[in-house]
Known about the structure:
Blueprint: H1 2-13, H2 17-29, H3 54-67, H4 74-86, H5 94-102, H6 104-108, H7 110-122, H8 126-171, H9 176-217, H10 224-249
Amino acid sequence: KMVANARGFIRRTASYPVVLAAGVAITLSGCQTTGGNYSGGTGSYGSQSATMTPAQQEMRSSASAFNKTLWQGVAAGAIVGGLLGAVVGNSDNRAQNMLIGAGIGALAGGLAGNYLATKQQQYATSEAQLDAVIADLRQKNDEEQRLVASLETVVAEHRLEMAELDAKYKAGTVDESAYRRKVAQIEADREIVQDSITSANKQLDTFKETRTLIAQQKPQTDLSEMDAELAEMQANTDRLAALNDELAATRGAV
Length: 254
């Protein structure tokens, strides 16, 4: 049925392959998870860039790196590749070319299928494919750990400054506006952390789905190393969530 539907779609669109491919690429690229650029200077966080501490700057840099997923553009590339494969050659094998161009996993497996299909195209053996996935997981864990470390410092800084503000407010040396400015800084940091938690959960889900696909395709594969990295990503993500709660609590005196 999928092949029949593909043939029908291709017959309707084969007369404008370049426009179609470009349109799909643009559409799908807009659907990819993209990390915000939190480095300061522009955007909703730019107005505070001059007063940010080194830890806040590091947190923004780490968040930008971590939130850029390793499969950005994979779906667009896989499907556009399939469409380009479909519109070359004679009409009898267009549907087959579409499946080859995109990969069965890319068409049927969602984001994890697209990601794994890309690894299968890049590496000849299942062992090399698994090693590449584990390397990606390890990279994202390293990035998330750097984000956690910088956030721990940011939380400590906010907690200390809020305690000092509270003492000064009680002494009458600062007014409520100082609290409001500090709360705005805390909320800006929390927004970044919340974005990163959302990204972390999506990335973790995709890696878990990738593991499931690998286990289905190669049931005898030893996935213990991948499982260890998945457990580490889960722990990092749980720590991010806990720190986000701690960050929210720093504004409790306001």
